[in-house]
Amino acid sequence: MKRHHVLVAMPVFAEVLAQLGEHFEVDAPCGIRDTVEWTPETLTARLQGCAGMLVAGTPRVDAALLAACPDLRAVCSMAVGYNNIDLAACTARGVLVSNAPDVLTETTADFGFALMMAAARRITESERFLRAGRWTHWSYDLFAGADVHGATLGVLGMGRIGSAIARRGALGFGMPVIYHNRSRLSSEAEQQLGARWVDKDELLRCSDHLVIVVPYSAASHHLVGAAELALMKPGATLTNIARGGVVDDAALAVALREHRLFAAGLDVFEGEPALNPDLLDLPNVVLTPHIASASLPTRRAMADLAASNLIAALGRGPAAGKPPTALNPQVLSGA
Ligand code: 8YV
Asked: CA-based Rg of the chain, rounded to a whole angstrom?
């Protein structure tokens, strides 16, 4: 029987490629160290004749790409955020889309907490000082930072990852937790997490450490901009592990420079991998290259889940037709 062709549009584990090879003719032009971002034209050319594609947080999959790639039937992402994929356009064309929730929740929450702590306790700033050979004296206020334990943790976006961060704060660090989310958790869930819902302004005003975990969409673009930053305490920190664009990076850089905010931790940026150059000059911001989910076991679980979705969407095995984390399963059921 003729095998489907699939494109793996990112570097991925050799074991995952081997597994896909058992089911498909695999085009995997990205070497394990190849970080080249394709243009839409290159991606379109690569996708000709392909029924499926494995992606991560890039590239952009939109109506124009789908129209130019009529054989495409499944787009399976190893990321949980899928703002790079136009889900409505895929559904309209009968293209199955899947993401990778759950498998990265705890790893990403660990990182969010680490980034928040690094910003609060000035870890990277003080390390740069030490490495530069400038540690010649002791002073009571040498790199004095903001306490984390007992401080108020604010979570903007209380989904799986937000909840995992809230748990860490409440149980591990004795932090009162407040959160804002469009939909409120049940009172049992709030009790379990020790978290209290507040409106967005109160969240901004009362958080000592604000962690942002909302998905990116047109509605969340610059959800935290100059006006929102102006509400925050001057001694507070802001951590963004959501998506570039949720925070107005230019406004954030100004607030940090003027010490209207104590510090920030950023793993995601507007226009990444490029970033606002103003951020690079600031001592009070910790910058990391979108690695919140990057532990090898978790990245492997994310890739395995994406591959399982692709195999179930296009393959003929026992799970055929039932991709485990499909976002639009109706396209397969014909509903
Ligand atoms: C990915 C992420 O590593 O899952 C997500 O939504 O942001 C990360 O875990 C990233 O999308 C890869 O591009």
From this structure: 22
DSSP helix/strand/coil, 96: strand
Whole-number Å distance, alpha carbon 319 to ligand 1 midpoint, is 25
pLDDT band at 315 (very low <50, low <70, confident <90, very high): confident
Name the segment(s) of the chain with CATH classification 3.40.50.720. 5-101+296-333, 105-287
Lookup: tokens for 217: 């969409």
Q: What is the pLDDT of residue 316?
A: 73
Structure tokens belonging to residue 28: 């995997």
How high is the pLDDT of residue 37? Answer: 67
Per the structure block, which two tokens stand in for 66? 């789908």
- Strand 25-27 and strand 52-55: the pairing is unpaired
Sheet of 74-77, strand order? 25-27, 5-8, 52-55, 74-77, 96-98
CATH of domain 5-101+296-333: 3.40.50.720
3-state SS assignment for residue 248: coil
Cα gap 112→278, rounded to integer Å: 22
pLDDT at 164: 98
Cis peptide bond prior to 59, omega within 30° of 0 = yes
Answer yes or no: is the C-beta of 242 below 6 A from any ligand 1 atom: no
Superfamily classification of domain 105-287: NAD(P)-binding Rossmann-like Domain (3.40.50.720)
Q: Does residue 213 line the site of ligand 1, with CB under 6 A? A: no
Amino acid at 25: E
User: Which tens digit of pLDDT belongs to each residue from 2-41?
Assistant: 899 999 998 899 999 999 999 999 998 876 455 456 789 9
- Residue 264's DSSP bridge partners are 238, 285
**Cα–ligand 1 centroid distance for 268 (angstroms):** 10
Give all strands of the β-sheet with 153-156 in edge-to-edge order.
Answer: 195-197, 177-180, 153-156, 209-212, 237-240, 263-266, 285-287
What pLDDT is stored for residue 29 in this prediction? 82
Ligand 1 atom with the smallest distance to the CA of 268 is 7
Residue 201 near residue 148, CB atoms below 8 Å? no
Task: Return the residue whose CA atom lies nearest to atom 6 of ligand 1.
Answer: 81
H or E element at residue 260: none
